[in-house]
Each structure stands twice: as C-alpha cells, then as structure tokens.
Amino acid sequence: MPLGSVLLAFVIGAVIVAATGGNPFSAYAALVCGGFGIGCTQGENPALQISNTIVFLIPLITAGVAVALPFRAGLFNIGAEGQLLAGSIACTAVGIKFSSLPAPILLPMVLISGMIAGALWAGVAGVLKATIGAHEVVTTIMMNYIAQWLLRYLIIGGPLQLAAGTSKSSPIGAGARLATILPNDNSLFIFGLPSSVFRVHTGLFIALAAVAVFAFLLWRTSLGYEIRAVGQSQKAARYAGVSVRRTIIVTMLIAGAFSGLAGAIEIAGVDHNLTDKYFTDTTGFDAIAVALLGLGSAVGIVMAAVLFGALHAGGSVMQADANISGNLVFILQALILFSIAANFVGAIRQRIPGLGRPTALPPQMPPAAPLMTEAATPPAEA
Amino acid sequence: MSGLGDVLHLLITANLWQATLAAAVLLLLPALGGTISERSGVVNIAMEGMMLTGAFFGVAADLAWHNPWLATGVAMLAGALMASIHAFVSIQFRADQIVSGIAINIFAAGLTVFLINRIYGLQDVGHIGQDALLPNLNIPGLDQIPFFGKVLFQQNVIVYVALVLLVLIHLVLFRTRLGLRIRAVGEHPQAADTAGINVFAIRYGAVITSGLLSGLSGAFLAIGISNTFVPNMTDGRGYIALAAMIFGKWTPFGAFVACLIFGLGQAIYDNNSIIHVSPYLLSMLPYLLTLIVLAGLVGRSTPPAADGLPYVPGSE
Questions:
Q1: What is the pLDDT of residues B15-58, one digit of tens each?
Q2: What domains can be seen in chain B, in order of their start residue?
Q3: ipTM greater than 0.85, yes or no?
Q4: Closest to B117 (Cβ–Cβ): which among A143, A325, A367?
Q5: Which residues of B are less than 8 Å from A70 in CB distance?
Q6: How close A264 gets to chain B, by Cα (Å)?
Q7: Domains with residue ranges and CATH for chain A
Q8: HEC states along B253-311?
Q9: What's the pLDDT tens digit per position in B227-243?
C-alpha cells in the first residue's frame, strides 16, 4: 500500500485544518479514537468504535473489488455507486415481496437478486464498450445517475414508498436480514454496552469471501488470465486467442455483481430498508480510492478498506469531540487520490539524493489515453 | 384538459421556453468549459466539483460584500483554482485524468461542507438579499416582442453573457489561430510541439478556462437562480454538462443544443403540475438520452484523438 501517499494526504489535510483555525492534532486524535477506539478522551467505547469501523468497511471491500477487477482488464468502473444502488433496490424489492419466506431461502434470494441487478447495471456499460466502443467511464457515470433518480422515484411517490410523505421503503422480511455477529439482545452486556448496539454483522464474512473469490478468479482461473491479458494489451490478447469483447462484457458483469452484492449487504445487514440515506451514499466512489490505494490486490483492498472504514467511523467522533466537520474525511480521501494518481511521493523521492528511484509505483492501471482513443474504434474481434 | 392537449399547451407558453433557456445556460457554461478542456486533450469530469466550489465561494463572497459582481468574480476564481489543481496533477504530473477528476469532485464536496462548518458553524449559510443577487435584465424594446421577447430578452444577466461566450468560444475554437492550436494539441500533441506550440501552456489555459466557466455557472446557480448555498447544491449538473458535451460531439453549438434539450426537460419538471410524471423519472432523461447517443443510435460521438493522453515531451 502506498503509505507515503496517505501520509502526504494527512499532512496537507492538517495544513487545511490549521489554516481554517482548527487544531489538526485534536482532529486526528479524534479520528483515531473514532476509527480504532484508541486514545479516546470523551468516554467513547473502543469496542463500539471498532464495530462501527467494521460496519463501514464491509461494503468498501465488496465494492472495492468491483473497481479493482475491471482495472485489471483496463476498464475504469466508476459506476460502482450506481451498481450498488441497483443491488440495494433489487434486494429491498425482493425482500419485501417475499418477506414471509424463511431465511435459508430468502437470504440467498435477496443477495443474489442484488448481484444480478448490479451485474445488469454494469453490463450495459460492458456491452456498449465491447460492441460500440462507448467509453465505460462515461456510460457508468450516466448509469450512476439513472440509478440515483430511480431510487428517488421508487421511494418518493413510487411503488416502494412506505407511506405518503415518507422517503423510505417498508422493511424487508426478517428472513432477508443478515444476522449481527453479537446477539441482538438489549439485556446482554458486552464490553460494557448492551450487545444490540454492536451492529457488526455477518456480511463481514461475505465481504472477505468476495475478496478471496476476486483473488482466486484473477490469478487461478483462465478467465482471470484473459482479464489480465486484455488489460496488458488488447492486441496481444487477441493474438493469444482471447475474445476481447467477451472478456470486457464478462468482467463488467462480474464487477457489477460485486457492487450489487455490496448494496444488498447494506440493506440486509444494516438498514433493512431503503432510506434517503442512500441519496447521498458515496460507497461506490470510496471504492475507487480503496481499489487504487490497495493497488488492486486482495490484501491491499482489505487494508485500504480498513483505512477508509476507520476514517468514516472516525468522522462523526471528530465532529463531536474536536468540532471539525466529518467532511474532512472526504478532503483526505481526495488528497489521497491526487497523491496516488500523480505519484507525488515518487517525485519527492527522486529529488532527494540517496533515496534513488521511487519504489512506490502507482497501481497497475492503463493510461486513460488508449481507452479514450479506443472509444472511436470498437475492439476488433479475432 | 388532459394528456396531449396539456403538453401542447405547455409547449406554446413563453414561460416554459424562458425557463428552458435559463436552465440550458446553467449547463452550457460548464459544458463549454469541458469542450475547451477536452479539445486540448485533457479529460475533464470535474465540472461538478468546480461548479460546486464556485457556488460556495460566490455565496460566501456575496454574503461578505453584498456585491454580486465581485462575488461572481470570486466564484470564477475559485472554479479556476480547482481547475488548476486538475491541470497541475494531470498535465505536470501526468496523473490519470479520470482519477484526478473524481478527486476534484470529492474534494469540492468535502471542502464546501467543511468550510460551512468552519465559517458559519453548524447553522446554514444564510440567505442573500434580493439586491445582492445577479439581476434579471430586460433589453428595452426587444423585450416587448411577442413570445420571443419574453424568451430571449427577459433573462438573467448571466444568460446573455453565456450566449455571447457561446458564439465567442465557437469562433475562437474554429476560426482563430489559438483555436487551431488548442485542437492541434488535443489531436496530436507531438506534431503540435514540433510546430512550436507550447503544449503545456495551451492545456493549462484550456483547463483553467473550464474552471472559470464552471465557477461562473456555480455563481449563476447560487446567487442568480437561488439565494443561498446548500451542500451538494449542484446535484449532478456538472455531470449533465459532461453529458451535453458528449451529446454535442465536443462542439460549442452541439453542446448548446444538448443543453436546450436537457433544459427543456428541467423546465417541464418545474411545470410538472400539468404533466403527471414523477419529476424523478424525468430527471433520468438527460442520462438516458446520452446513453442512447453513445450507443450510436443518433450518430457516433468521437472525442479528440489525444483526449486523456498526458503529454510527455520528446515522446513518439
């Protein structure tokens, strides 16, 4: 993980806080407390903070995979957000419609329907890229907004609205919910709090399974080989007998399934219904930072998701304890993106004698240029 | 009255077309900016963020000085500063321009709310008095023309500015030496460099211009159409502008036509008491239409050849 980029982002973030009259040390102390439960001064419960961080990182891992996989094929999926929303919508719709079914049937049903919806959402971009050559960045942006407005329609005046005047859906059936890891019991006290306040849920295991599937798929299957081959050089892949078009479509379908799963897990594990919270959801964009910071590797994605999960969980504590807006987290995230993309750290190292060549290279990612020029010419079939 | 009759009636009201033009201009300014930036070879998906930054600093300046003109200048400057980050990172450091664009948008969304919190505390930003907003301007005489007077000559001052800029940018891009240079840099930077054109300077200028225009649009939104700043108030308009740029095939007038189509959707949305369709479904239309254009159903939309390609001096 390019730790130098993260460090640089935090230094610049501290300057921004100081320049606007805040105390960066207390801000970051509150972030660490909120994210990892370490060094808390205002009586926060460390176990609860860690639980919150895990709740945040579950969808980040799953959606991070959905960005990292297409990267390997030379595709930039910035539509993870839209695919995630499609997954949440499908999960909710199925979870309401079949709410009376028992968990062993309904839970797989809602998760799989989320994956299918996400796959379809991403598949549009995949098919347009493979057949027409339409740039997937542009098409996935459009699909993001279509999903956002569809969501608003569905729960404000549309068929999923709970009641007039509300902006939420009815809850999904009990059988569609992911269990919390600690018992959902108000009378049982764990770490000094009722165990029901710890919302960390079994979606964690699904997320870890997803990242394992990603690594296996990429490095141990022929599809993974084809994905990497297409990412390295479409021309060479074609000579090796790989169907570039098919690989592009399949890659986007799988990526969308991961994003859709992330959305379904959020509904099944945390919210249990669609709410206006999803209007401002940024998980799919955070996932881009997770994939880039994790250098597209399974371990890297998990570590990056821990960092961003902790930042998000820490944001609210920072707001409360240090009176610094939790939005500093987004500033830090943007700075990390700039820093990785521009490889500032590498540039700094080169200027300092003795450090030699930069070791932290930006993640393996094709430059935008060939993607952009290919927009004019659809990939030829072998 | 019902159904088709209502729609037809709505379409012949001057009010609808007046609103359409205003809504179109809001999108046109960042779309023009995107067109200039991408014509020079720098992919720009950061109009949303630059517009949002412009909107915030426009409101902050207007609240402080009660001067909409000064505030508009500040908004444009703020947009340009955001753009220069994009330029610095993607031209100087050859960063992936899409990552940089996403980072700008996240940065703007975070920074504006962070600053509201630092400057105004937890309360909202506050409202700007009527006298400190960008004014409407009726062109004497012309505004009395039936129908067209209302549509074209009873508009906010920014609408006239934008229409002048539209023509100006079209002429500069396609009728001047500077425009030829911008397009050359976007199509084949190596050849342009060989011909003595400063590729970096042209690209910096083009990206910063896109920031100025997006900032102006942010000011129009916040202190012309609205009178305050709310978090994420651009609500995807920068991305619709991106769609308009593609829809318009990277030409100013093409983008304007797209903006008019999208603006008409917005105007119908605002007059939705007549047409009984969810405004949320209508909001999908710009994105759906752009997908259809991209799918090649209405002709191919092709970006400049070197769009997105960082220029490395001396490279092949």
A1: 889 999 999 999 999 999 999 999 999 999 999 999 999 999 99
A2: 14-294 (1.10.3470)
A3: yes
A4: A325
A5: none
A6: 23
A7: 3-374 (1.10.3470)
A8: HHHHHHHHHHHHHHHHHHCCCCCCCCHHHHHCHHHHHHHHHHCCCCCCCCCCCCCCCCC
A9: 999 999 998 899 999 98
